[in-house]
């Protein structure tokens, strides 16, 4: 699952987050307690799923290779790992938003 246009893939965002944490550590003179305290004050907002369906499932060959339930399980597994990575990096306050109503997408209406 990649990204198209101006969308930055979640895996790339997680890498950028690790780089940012490294910079915070430098600013806080490698004081891990101070870094943890800082990260504990942050609110992380994650909006996942819509582009994965629109840009992947609705395009061949994904739709042919996977049932809707199977594709959903693949995404759930991937998102679980990505959210776990975010949590393990210090994110404790995370708001997760999911899919829009897929039945309203032009790709779905056309099928």
Automatic annotation (TrEMBL):
Family affiliation: Belongs to the 'GDSL' lipolytic enzyme family.
Gene Ontology CC terms, in alphabetical order: extracellular region
Keywords: Hydrolase, Lipid degradation, Lipid metabolism, Secreted, Signal
Protein name: SGNH hydrolase-type esterase domain-containing protein
InterPro entries, sorted: GDSL, GDSL_esterase/lipase, SGNH_hydro_sf
Biological processes per GO annotation: lipid catabolic process
Top-rank taxon: Eukaryota
Compartmental location: Secreted
A molecular function GO annotation: hydrolase activity
Organism the protein comes from: Castilleja foliolosa
Pfam family membership, one: Lipase_GDSL
Signal peptide coordinates: none
């Amino acid at each position: 699952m990649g990204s198209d246009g101006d969308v930055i893939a979640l895996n790339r965002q997680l890498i950028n987050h690790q780089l940012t944490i490294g910079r915070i550590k430098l600013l806080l003179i490698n004081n891990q307690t101070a870094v943890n305290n800082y990260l504990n004050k942050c609110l992380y907002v994650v909006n996942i799923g819509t582009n994965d369906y629109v840009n992947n499932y609705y395009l061949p060959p994904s739709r042919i290779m996977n049932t809707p339930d199977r594709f959903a399980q693949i995404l759930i597994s991937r998102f679980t790992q990505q959210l776990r990575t975010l949590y393990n990096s210090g994110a404790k306050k995370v708001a997760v938003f999911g899919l829009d109503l897929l039945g309203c997408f032009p790709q779905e209406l056309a099928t």
